[in-house]
From TrEMBL:
Pfam families tied to this protein: ABC_tran (PF00005)
Protein name, as recorded: ATP-binding cassette domain-containing protein
SUPFAM superfamilies attached to this UniProt entry: P-loop containing nucleoside triphosphate hydrolases
Domain ABC transporter: 7-236
InterPro entries tied to this protein: AAA+_ATPase, ABC_transporter-like_ATP-bd, ABC_transporter-like_CS, ABC_transporter_ATP-binding, P-loop_NTPase
Native source species: Qipengyuania gaetbuli
Cleavable signal peptide: none
High-level lineage: Bacteria, Pseudomonadati, Pseudomonadota, Alphaproteobacteria, Sphingomonadales
Keyword annotations: ATP-binding, Nucleotide-binding, Transport
PANTHER family the record matches: ABC TRANSPORTER ATP-BINDING PROTEIN
GO MF annotation terms: ATP binding; ATP hydrolysis activity
PROSITE patterns: ABC_TRANSPORTER_1, ABC_TRANSPORTER_2
UniProt superkingdom: Bacteria
């Protein structure tokens, strides 16, 4: 039997003074133990959605239920089980790391637990920095402090708003490892990111939001199979002046002065690779020699840009 959702949003809407609709009738269910990636351009509504669940933004309408508690009437019980790593570094810069993280635990009414705080700091490679003031740390280390503060009260649901923004590639990989560890402990994670490779690598499901509307939600693999496409470039041994009639059934066109045949197809069917194989057989049957084939499958980024339809990059 499938577990009930850990978080349910029903027709969530937020209209700011002045008429800006940051969330537009958003409905979403989050499963226990999953990593859910929310993708969208700047101003799409990602941070507003997180703020609504975490009590930082008051929705205009709609319903939010977390752990069976209605967030409008029973907010405190649910909020104690929700952690937030915000996008902005808004922590007390003059505090030593260990004091800031311990204080976050106390804010949620939990008894002091030095061993748990040490475990968290060690898992984030912060133990050696525990007595340093936060202001003295690098940007990547400051972001790790934000994660430590969010983990201090042992949340079951963790929001990561742009967790790797402004950190280098090596630190980003370290963050991915930390997210994996959290998932292994049973923490449900919702992350926003403008590194789409992050969603492609980490997420179980992906949601795409734009102008406050949730455009689609699906399993990552199912989304890529359904909306992905195959692109193949076939280098021809001799240039063609025109496409032979036998190739008209394939979505192909001549490029580079007739020296290259480009296939773009498989949209929504996942059959692109099989069709490329059929195309090569047709070339052989027509006596058309070729010297090489390069194929690539759509990435999540290709699908994202295609869905937005205006070339915006995730942020």
């Amino acid at each position: 039997m499938e577990s009930p959702p850990i978080l349910e949003l029903e027709r969530l809407t937020k209209v700011y003074p002045g008429g800006l609709k940051a969330l537009d009738d958003v409905s979403l269910s989050i499963r226990p133990g999953e990593i859910f990636a929310l993708l969208g351009p700047n101003g799409a509504g990602k941070t507003t959605l997180i703020g609504a669940v975490c009590g930082l933004v008051r929705p205009s309408s709609g319903r939010m239920v977390a752990f069976g508690h209605d967030l409008a009437t029973d907010w405190r019980k649910a909020r104690a089980r929700i952690g937030l790593v915000p996008q902005e570094l808004s922590t007390d810069m003059f505090e030593p790391v260990i004091r800031a993280v311990s204080y976050s635990r106390g804010l949620f009414g939990l008894a002091p637990d030095p061993a748990r705080i040490e475990e968290i700091l060690r898992s984030l490679s912060l133990w050696d920095k525990r007595d340093e003031r936060i202001m003295a740390l690098s940007g990547g280390m400051k972001r790790r402090v934000l994660i430590a503060k969010a983990l201090a009260h042992e949340p079951d649901l963790l929001f990561l708003d742009e967790p790797t923004a402004g950190v280098d590639v090596e630190l980003r990989k370290g963050m991915w490892a930390i997210i994996d560890q959290m998932r292994a402990r049973g923490v449900t994670i919702i992350l926003t990111t403008h590194y789409i490779e992050e969603a492609e690598l980490m997420a179980d499901r992906v949601g795409i939001i734009n102008r406050g509307k949730l455009l689609m939600v699906d399993e990552k693999e199912a989304m890529m199979a359904r909306l992905g496409r195959t692109e193949a470039h076939i280098a021809l041994a001799s240039p063609l002046a025109a496409l032979p009639q036998a190739l008209s059934r394939f979505p192909v066109e001549l490029e580079e002065g007739g020296t290259s045949l480009c296939y773009r197809g498989g949209d929504g069917t996942g059959k692109g690779k099989a069709e490329v194989a059929e195309l090569t057989k047709a070339l052989v049957a027509e006596g058309i020699d070729f010297t090489g084939i390069e194929t690539r499958e759509s990435s999540l980024e290709d699908i994202f840009v295609s869905l937005l339809g205006d070339g915006e990059v995730a942020a």
